[in-house]
Amino acid sequence: MKKQKYNLAILGATGVVGREMIEILAERKFPVGELRLFASEKSVGEEIEWEGKPVKVRLVGDNAFAGIDIVMGDTPTAVSKELIPKAVAQGAVAVDCSSAFRMDPNVPLVVPEVNAAAIARHKGIIAGANCSAIPVAVAVKPIHDQYGVKRLVLSTYQSASGAGKGGTDELAQQTTALFSQKDPVLKVFPYRLAFNVIPQIDSFLPGGDTKEEAKIVEELKKMIEAPNMGVTVTAVRVPVFVGHSAAVNIETEKKAQASEVRELLRKIPGVVVKDEPAKKEYPLPIEAAGQDEVYVGRIREDASIPNGLNLWVAADNLRKGAALNAVQIAEILIEKYL
After folding, report:
1. Which of 97, 122, 144, 244 is catalytic?
2. 29-50 per-position pLDDT tens digit
3. Contacts for 117-121 with beta carbons within 8 Å, 24 or more apart?
4. pLDDT at 1 over 50
């Protein structure tokens, strides 16, 4: 008989994604037995409330994951590469939101609305995808299944929270400083983000793409299971606190009418179609913030190619782009595989 509760560990518990995970676990009444919270040394001793009681944050020790069923977290890549294998060796299944294992052929890269069946192939580690790739995959996969997608051209508009708490703090400081006629701080972003956009996320690769753009390209191909699909991305940081958006241009194998695509996406769990141009109704990141769904609008045919579509997508990058996605994977794990 399956046990009714599961012991969980959260890595990076004091970060923006870690805190969001804890809130979502409570919201969705995940059957948690013991909850262990881990973070870096600077956060050790902090207390986070869980079910009305404070839980202390600690460092990962030698047997930190003993008795743990599921480990979830979003930590720097090097930290994930060190800690996740230890968790698996101690008997846990890990749902990792970092980029450490996403392109490992032995690790499923999962968005439940897109490829939940891939969870069955896990060997102890399940990866969550990039926070911009997830909502795009949710919107594009049904179109690919119905019409075949030959090529995607994406421009992503990524909020400050994609760079963590330091990113949102810097945007807030810069905004206040400019109104107060003071100098803005530049620590997280290479240029001032307040009242500006920055066409660079992560470092540049030899060909001119950034690491962020390259991640999105490869992850979309893996999740949608379309290795030959052409994908090109320009990733832009914008002065929004929470909520990533994307302009998505799609070239399909078969002709797709915009009206057909609207009806198709309205049937997809986790998608909200908001597409009434005459009423100025379309997805906004400020409306997607705090919501679980992926919002899709501005659905229209692209007259410049025979089988072209344009979409606008917005989602909460901390929830569906990371924490919620991990919790959804964990829910499937306990329902079917643990």
Report:
1. 244
2. 999 999 999 999 999 999 999 9
3. 119/329, 119/332, 119/333, 119/336, 119/337, 120/336, 120/337
4. no
Closest CA to 275 of 288, 266, 286: 266
- ∠ CA 157-161-166 to the nearest 5 degrees? 130
CA 238 to CA 247: how far, in whole Å? 14
Strand ranges, E, within the chain: 6-11, 32-38, 47-50, 53-58, 70-73, 93-96, 125-127, 149-158, 230-237, 244-252, 271-273, 294-302, 308-315
Within 8 A by CB and 6+ apart from 129, the residues are 102, 109, 110, 111, 137, 219, 223, 325
Catalytic residue among 97, 122, 131, 144: 131
* Whole-number pLDDT of residue 4: 87
d(CA 116, CA 48): 31
Residues 92-135 have pLDDT tens digits of 999 999 999 999 999 999 999 999 999 999 999 999 999 999 99
Whether 144 sits among the annotated catalytic residues: the reply is: no
